[in-house]
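in:
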C-alpha cells in the first residue's frame, strides 16, 4: 500500500498557495459529512483552479478515510489537509494503533473494503504514519 496503482484520471492543477486545514471530527456517523463540508470549502478557497470532478475525487477519498476511522477506531479522529505548490496531502488520524489492512472489497453485503483501493485507483500514494497514541493514514497526491 505504498505505491500508486493507477495514474490520476485527469491532470490535477497545482494549488495556488500553500495552505492547511486541521479539524477534529465527531466520533459518530456524521463525521464523513462533516469532513466533506469542511474540506470542500477549504479546497475551493485554496485551489480555485481545481476541476469539480477532481475535487469530487478528493472528497470521496476523504469520506472513505474518515469512514474507516469511525468504523475501526474508538474515539475521535482528525482530518488534516495540506496543499502546496505541487501537492495535496489528505491525512486522517485516529487513536487506533492498528494499521489499515487492504482487503478484497465486499460487493454483495456492502461491508466495505473499497476505501484504500479507491484512493489508490484515483492516484493517491497511500501510507500510514505511526503516532504515539494512534496512527495517521495519508493519501498523498503530487502534480
Amino acid at each position: 500500500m505504498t505505491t500508486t496503482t493507477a495514474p490520476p484520471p485527469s491532470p490535477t492543477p497545482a494549488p495556488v498557495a500553500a495552505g492547511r486545514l486541521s479539524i477534529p471530527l465527531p466520533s459518530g456517523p456524521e463525521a464523513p459529512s462533516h469532513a466533506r463540508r469542511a474540506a470542500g470549502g477549504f479546497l475551493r478557497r485554496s485551489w480555485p483552479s481545481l476541476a469539480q470532478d477532481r475535487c469530487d475525487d478528493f472528497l470521496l477519498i476523504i469520506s472513505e478515510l474518515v469512514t474507516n476511522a469511525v468504523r475501526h477506531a474508538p474515539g475521535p479522529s482528525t482530518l488534516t489537509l495540506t496543499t502546496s505548490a505541487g501537492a495535496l496531502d489528505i491525512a486522517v488520524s485516529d487513536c487506533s494503533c492498528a494499521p489499515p489492512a487492504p482487503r478484497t472489497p465486499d460487493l454483495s453485503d456492502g461491508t466495505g473494503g473499497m476505501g484504500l483501493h479507491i484512493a489508490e485507483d484515483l492516484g493517491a500514494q497511500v501510507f500510514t504514519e505511526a503516532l504515539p497514541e494512534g496512527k495517521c493514514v495519508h493519501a498523498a497526491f503530487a502534480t
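note: The first helix runs from residue 31 to 46.
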